[in-house]
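Fill-in record for Glucose 1-dehydrogenase.
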Amino acid sequence: MKFPTFGLNGRVALVTGSTKGIGYGIALALAGAGADLVIVSRNQADCDRVADEIRGMGRRAIGVATDVTQNDQVQKLVERTVAEYGRIDILVNNAGTAITKRAEDLTEADFERVVALDQRAVFFVAQAVGRQMIKQGGGRIINVASILGLVGERQVLPYCVAKGGVIQMTRALALEWAKYNISVNALCPGYVITPMNEADLKNEKIYNHLLRNIPMRRLGRIEDMAGAVVFMASDAASYMTGQCLVIDGGWTAQ
């Protein structure tokens, strides 16, 4: 019996929001497993910096500045990737944002800004890449959701709404696209130290509240998430689709 491995040699991975935080760690981990990369964020200089780093690891990489909330830019991103590599084997939908505000104070603009990036863009990027994967005979889509799509939290209502939608989107797409040999899964991180939440975590009250509620008594690290994505992108996860992989130090087990 031959068991599958986690190697990604020769595969092409596109990672949105991949110049910092969890997305950056995922991009480096995929490259470390042998994949060639497309680095995506809104800033071209940031994309080039990370692409240069990955080329230094011996892998091919390009950086493509893209606002993933704009469908015309998403289409150009897919076209550029296919022109460069000929295919897209792995999509990691990671770009996201959050607003911390009481529900009674949220504006329509607040709500729309979070949902546009954290939910709507996830679908339209998946759709554009999925069309290419259908043409080429398959691929892997990994949507970065959150445990706050599974449980509620105070003062981040639009984020909870968006991430809950991403989890359901993942399940629905998995059912539709299984016949095309496309697997669609979600990563649900718990509380992870990233540039996006760095300021909040400097608040001692918030930090201590989180530690008290995490059974492992520590916050997550970016590398905790990156390894899980390598698994979902690899042959070891070939029979896995429509699932949400929760990595949260035990938060949702309570």
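KEY FINDING: Residues 4 and 236 are 5 Å apart (CA to CA).
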